[in-house]
Specification:
about 350 residues, alpha/beta, Alpha-Beta Plaits, TIM Barrel, 2 domains, four-stranded antiparallel β-sheet, 11 helices, 15 strands, about 35% helix, about 20% strand, elongated, binds phosphoenolpyruvate, binds manganese (II) ion
């Protein structure tokens, strides 16, 4: 439910309402707008409908929240959420750029890629140290050694680190090295993992599941937000379809769809969405045109030698050309690249 306060409601009124609602066993979320303050009341819908919330002093109106996700919805939080990481912003008109190898393969290679993507304009370095591979016999990542390499490369260049955590047992360790903790597509509905990263004081990037709807993506974000972590960046990375000339089907309509229903930023990962390096530039530009809050792109010095996802990785020169094209287009598409 949404409690809309009367225009002149005081802080004491707000405190009183929160106290009453909490004593009834519900959670609250306060949103102070220019005109009005609203208090979201979150809990079991059926019980909520029976509460005499309109009788509390200072309350003007009580409205239902129509969406199943509450904290993630625009109904309870009108303004865009802007997530800032080491000077790179996502959301509210800001277009953040994340780039790096699919996996951290070696110190030398990671430093070299980091240097090139940083020079081209990426503010965040990506790279997997824990890799979710289809085959248990494929390269699984360098684990903590990979995290250390990523951190050192990013620190040298003043970049942020975005890297995936796959297991609740590794959350503390990964968060020690990462600036953005990534939840991969395969774990989008791993609710224990979502709740665990919700306790972190670090931004979380939540990737859309392989066969998940936008609504399910937002319900998963709700698990993170519920724990108190409000810095969630969503990521459209393509969904399964019958089309097999691309690795997945990039659902660009997820961008305006999320923006309509949620205040959270959403970026696009054209690399995993298409699986093809020849489609990265066009899909990145399309993402910006669709209103995306950023992109995440896989870059490798020698894609044909990559231990994972070489076919979708672009070389540093191509990345540099892509970023300069995006920077040129940004003002025309209402975006700021930081
Ligand atoms: C990744 O970004 O490293 C990755 C594995 O992507 P996804 O979870 O989207 O498949
Ligand atoms: Mn990859």
């Amino acid at each position: 439910m949404i409690i809309v306060l009367k225009p002149g409601a005081t802080n004491a009124d707000v405190d009183h309402i929160i106290e009453r609602v909490k004593s009834l066993g519900f959670e609250t979320m306060v949103s102070r707008g220019v005109q009005r303050t609203i208090i979201g009341v979150i809990g079991e819908e059926e019980r909520l409908r029976e509460l005499p919330l309109a009788a509390i002093p200072g309350v003007e109106q009580v409205l239902p929240v129509l969406k199943p996700y509450k904290r993630a919805s625009r109904e309870l939080h009108e303004a865009d959420t802007v997530v800032e990481v080491k000077g790179t912003r996502f959301g509210g008109g800001n277009f953040g750029i994340i780039a790096g190898p699919c996996a951290v393969e070696s110190e030398e290679m990671t430093f070299a890629i980091a240097q090139r993507v940083s020079r081209a304009g990426a503010g965040i370095l990506r790279g997997g140290a824990y890799k979710p591979r289809t085959s248990p016999y494929s390269f699984q990542g360098l684990k903590e050694e990979g995290l250390k390499i990523l951190r050192a490369a990013a620190d040298k260049l003043g970049m942020g680190v975005c890297t995936e955590v796959m297991d609740t047992r590794d959350v503390t360790l990964v968060a020690k090295y990462a600036d953005i903790v990534q939840i991969g597509a395969r774990n989008m509905q791993n609710y224990n993992l979502l709740s665990e990263v919700g306790l972190l004081e670090k931004p979380v990037m939540l990737k859309r599941g392989l066969s998940a709807t936008v609504k399910e993506l937002l319900m998963s974000a709700e698990y993170i937000l519920r724990q108190g972590n409000e810095r969630v960046i969503l990521c459209e990375r393509g969904i399964r379809s019958f089309e097999d000339s691309t690795r997945n089907t990039l659902d660009l309509s997820a961008v305006p769809n999320v923006h309509l229903n949620s205040h959270l930023p959403i970026i696009v990962d054209p690399s995993h969405a298409t699986g093809r390096r020849d489609f990265i530039e066009s899909m990145s530009i399309a993402a910006m045109a669709a209103g995306a809050d950023g992109i995440m792109v896989e870059v490798h010095l020698e894609p044909e030698m990559a231990l994972s996802d070489g076919a979708q990785s672009i070389e540093p020169d191509a990345f540099e050309a892509l970023v300069s094209r995006l920077k040129e287009l940004a003002p025309h598409l209402g975006k700021k690249t930081s």
